[in-house]
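user: can you give me the structure for this one chain? tokens are fine.
assistant: on it. calling the predictor now.
[tool input]
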Amino acid sequence: MTTAGARGATRLGRLERPAITGVLVREVVNFSSYWRSATFSSTVEPTIYLLAFGFGFGSLVSRVGGYKYVEFVGTGTVATAVLFSSAFPAMFGTFVKYQFQRTYDAILAAPVDTEELVTAEALWIATRAGVYGCVPMLVAIAFGLNPAWGMFAVPLIAFISGFGWACFGITVAAVMKSIDNFSYVTSTVITPLFLVAGTFFPISGLPQWARVAANVNPLYHCVQLVRDASLGALQPADLFHVGVLLAFALLMWRLAIWRLGDRLID
């Protein structure tokens, strides 16, 4: 019987809690050795964007979309922090673990399957994204963004969005043959989505094709949810934004399981 077959014969069901917990505990323990650098890279860059755009352009543009520009950028940058703290760590972390460290081979030798492995990895990265995503908002509060009760929903929004982007990163890592190829994804996918997300300027002034592209951009829906929640402007349309983020997370979760499973078999 093959290793995969032997492992499958001991399975009791799908997504067993002990298996997921075991992977999560390993990630938490491992994270304690590099949390400073991970926190620095995931929070400083979005904060720099906030300060540069919020107070650079903010001195030239007083209001955008009915909001003060620092409020507009401060809430939009939350989505940027979520993206930076989920997609990139998932891409590089996954590739290194299965290609160089062979960590996944060791994990899958235990009663853990690819579905549980991907789920645990994405949950851990999404949890970090939920925390890191709040940093630009706290900075914006220090510089004039008024606190609101809706801000308590921001970690949950960041978590859902972060889960989808983490699974996206895992999928990319499973597809690419070399870590150098990540630059293609960054330049042709992540950067355009980042720019057409309503983070630094409203999409209403963009051409029709760009507005259509924005509405299928998960990052745009994250920006809208965070902005509406933080500025006390939640409305029925936000249910659509939630639905898009959940659909994106579910789709990327299944893709990540499929592609990583195929890669680990090779």
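assistant: here you go. The first strand starts at residue 63 and ends at 64. Strands lie at 63-64, 67-68.
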